[in-house]
Structure formats: structure tokens, C-alpha cells
Write a sequence for this structure.
């Protein structure tokens, strides 16, 4: 099992970038947006969508920017919030 996980992590490093770099950028983006005046008026799903979009942005920037899943995921999280605010 450990070898399988190491294999997965090796592939993810190529597509998502080095974990420490991706995590640092993701946290920087999330921390920056939390300083904005409008953060507190966002709903829970809007905050989570933004968090996840920034997470995916960090992966695209530190990893393979041509990996379609990054972009599909960003669009997906945005669409989930659109659906919530349209209810």
C-alpha cells in the first residue's frame, strides 16, 4: 500500500506541483482574500468555493498548467455556487 501511495504522490507532484509550494501559495491566496471587507458577508458555500478555486489555482500555477482537471475543478466550484445562489 505504501508503494501505491508513493506512486500516486509522484504523479501528483508532476500535475499539482511540489506539495509545500502548492500549499504555501494556496494559503497565501486564501489569507489575502480573507482580509477583504466583503469576505464576512459571503455565505458558507461562497467561501468554500473561493477556497477551493484558490486551491486549484495554486495547483495550476505550481504544477502543470495544462492539466485539464485544474480548470474543470475551478469551473465546477464556481458553478456550484451559482446553483446555490439561484435557488
Amino acid at each position: 500500500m505504501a508503494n501505491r501511495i508513493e506512486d500516486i504522490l509522484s504523479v501528483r507532484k508532476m500535475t499539482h506541483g511540489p506539495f509545500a509550494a502548492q500549499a504555501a501559495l494556496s494559503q497565501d491566496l486564501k489569507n489575502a482574500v480573507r482580509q477583504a471587507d466583503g469576505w464576512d458577508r459571503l455565505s458558507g458555500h461562497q467561501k468554500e468555493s473561493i477556497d477551493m478555486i484558490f486551491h486549484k489555482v495554486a495547483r495550476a500555477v505550481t504544477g502543470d498548467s495544462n492539466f485539464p482537471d485544474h480548470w474543470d475543478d475551478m469551473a465546477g466550484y464556481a458553478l456550484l455556487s451559482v446553483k446555490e445562489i439561484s435557488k
